[in-house]
Design brief:
By secondary structure, the chain is mostly beta strands. Helix content is 0%, strand content 51%.
Length: 124
């Protein structure tokens, strides 16, 4: 059984940092893509960041320069370092994994496996 478990969410003030982690079990993703998406209150789920098998990274425009995605293949985990957080970053953050290569790492339809989500709340 494949499981993705997020951790690291919480309540912080604007300007603070948080580090989200996603621990995968039951399947490895180092040959595919690992990503983060988020759903803000009243909005659709949207792409945040992705890292592919060859270490290419992709970011949504609204997080470029503030967020950084990385992975540890040995531990089958990936993380999202979030700096300079803004109130508009408030959302439930989901990690997602795909076991094989995709040319569309920013598309949520490409991901087979999802975590349950972790809440990030940024106060002003």
């Amino acid at each position: 059984q494949v499981q993705l478990v997020e951790s690291g969410g919480g309540l912080v003030q604007a300007g603070a940092s948080l580090r989200l982690s996603c621990a995968a079990s039951g399947r490895t993703f180092n040959a595919g893509s690992m990503a983060w998406f988020r759903r803000a209150p009243g909005k659709e789920r949207e792409f945040v960041a992705a890292i592919t098998w060859n270490d290419n990274t992709y970011y949504a425009d609204f997080v470029k320069g503030r967020f950084s995605i990385s992975r540890d293949n040995a531990k089958n985990t990936w993380t999202l370092q979030m700096n300079s957080l803004k109130p508009e970053d408030t959302a439930v953050y989901y990690c997602a994994g795909r076991t094989i290569v995709t040319s569309l790492p920013e598309s949520q339809t490409q991901y087979n496996y999802w975590g349950q989500g972790t809440q990030v709340t940024v106060s002003s």
